[in-house]
Amino acid sequence: DIQMTQSPSSVSASVGDRVTITCRASQGISSWLAWYQVKPGKAPKLLIHAAASLQSGVPSRFSGSGSGTDFTLTISSLQPEDFATYYCQQAKSFPLTFGGGTKVEI
Amino acid sequence: QITLKESGPTLVKPTQTLTLTCAFSGFSLLTSGVGVGWIRQPPGKALEWLALIYWDDDKRYSPSLKSRLTITKDTSKNQVVLTMTNMDPVDTATFYCAHMRGSGPFDYWGQGTLVTVSS
After folding, report:
1. From B46, B107, B110, residue closest to A98, measured CB to CB
2. Quick check: B89 and B14 in contact, CB under 8 A?
3. Testing the interface with B: which of A6, A48, A96, A103 to mutate, by most B Cβ within 10 A?
4. Contact A21, A102 (CB under 8 A)
5. Are B46 and A101 in contact (CB < 8 Å)?
């Protein structure tokens, strides 16, 4: 199985801050990586696919980069609605695996 | 517009079998490349992929849970059903179903259903 390790597990930030979350795969996954935003009681939301492709309708303050084993999700200017937990997921091979999550909080 | 909605019991007893239904609209599971997956999230913990079924009835399971899981589809009803046997309190979680195309990500998700396992 491909293990996905996210860091940090939580980050305290303020509105307007730049936030960067990292995700490391235990083996190379090319660009087979997605990022999701999860809020309590809401459907998870796909933000980024193929490591760096912004999903339709997602604000441009979200961006993704990386390939191989190291990836980042960046929120360029944190907005109040961005306080949530973020997960990476590899789609290179089964079993599909998620990172441990990063909670972005005030 | 793609939508998915999970339904099933909110409370099950230990050792019982859980049956969850994902009702979807806006796409067909007869379309080449389309899949529907199940993912769960225990309270305060991370997302965990459970199972996936494709348009051609190809099925994939989490190896750690494979012996307990069965995923099926009913294309006439636009539904996907997940069964999980021998439920335990550690299986308490919010269960989500989600749409996938090809080898892509889960691009549409349901809101999830919380299942508690307790006697």
Report:
1. B46
2. yes
3. A96
4. yes
5. yes
Nearest CA in chain A to B102: A91
pLDDT of A77 reads 96
User: What φ, ψ does residue B38 adopt, rounded to 5°?
Assistant: -120, 135
pLDDT tens per residue across span B42-79:
999 999 999 999 999 999 999 999 999 999 999 999 99
- Among the listed residues A44, A102, A80, the one whose alpha carbon sits nearest the alpha carbon of residue B108: A44
User: Tokens at residue A66, please?
Assistant: 């990386």
Sequence-ordered list of residues with C-beta below 8 angstroms from that of A1, at least 6 positions apart, any chain: A95, A97, B63
In order, the DSSP letters of B55-117 are TT--EEE-TTTGGGEEEEEETTTTEEEEEE-S--GGG-EEEEEEEEETT--EEEE---EEEEE
φ and ψ of B51, to 5 deg: -160, 160
Residue A52 has pLDDT above 90, yes or no: yes
Question: What is the C-alpha to C-alpha distance for residues B80 and A93, in angstroms, rounded to an integer?
Answer: 22
- Provide the pairing of β-strand B113-117 with B11-12: parallel
The proportion of chain B whose per-residue pLDDT surpasses 90, expressed as a percent, equals 97
User: Residue B18: pLDDT band by 50, 70, 90 thresholds?
Assistant: very high
Decide: A92 and A2 in contact? Cβ < 8 Å: yes
Nearest CA in chain B to A9: B46
